[in-house]
Amino acid sequence: MKIKDLIEKLKTFPTDTKVLVRGYEDGYDDVVLVEEKTVVKDQDAPDWNGEYDNAEPDAKNTENAVVIFGNRR
């Protein structure tokens, strides 16, 4: 999803609607940080890890991404 897609989705809700992220195991948490990161896709990531990881300075095929963190990031 790109920022423009997220904005379009968010526009369909009242502007005072709370935004949450998934909690560590169950439930939901408040958003506490929105941060830009340089990431790289990990084709071999195990099922319990995310598809992307922080990119090393010399990594190839990197992407810039905005990451939304909750209370228990």
Keywords:
73 residues, mainly beta, four-stranded antiparallel sheet, 1 helix, 4 strands, globular
Q: How do the strands and helices of this protein lay out in sequence?
A:
Blueprint: H1 3-10, E1 20-22, E2 28-41, E3 52-54, E4 62-70
Antiparallel strand pairs: 1-2, 2-3, 2-4
Summarize the structure.
This protein is mainly β and about 70 residues long.
- Name the shape in a single word: globular
Oligomer: single chain
First-last Cα distance? 20 Å
**How many whole angstroms does the radius of gyration measure?**
14 Å
Q: Would you list the SSEs in sequence order as H and E?
A: HEEEE
Strand content: 35-45%
The overall average pLDDT, rounded, is: 92
Structural class: mainly beta
Can you offer a commentary on this structure?
- The protein is mostly beta strands and 73 residues long.
- The chain has one domain.
- It is built from one helix and four strands, in the order αββββ.
- It has one helix at residues 3-10; strands spanning 20-22, 28-41, 52-54, 62-70.
- Strands 1, 2, 3 and 4 form a four-stranded antiparallel sheet that branches.
- The radius of gyration is 14 Å and the shape is globular.
- The protein starts with a helix and ends with a strand.
- The mean pLDDT is 92.
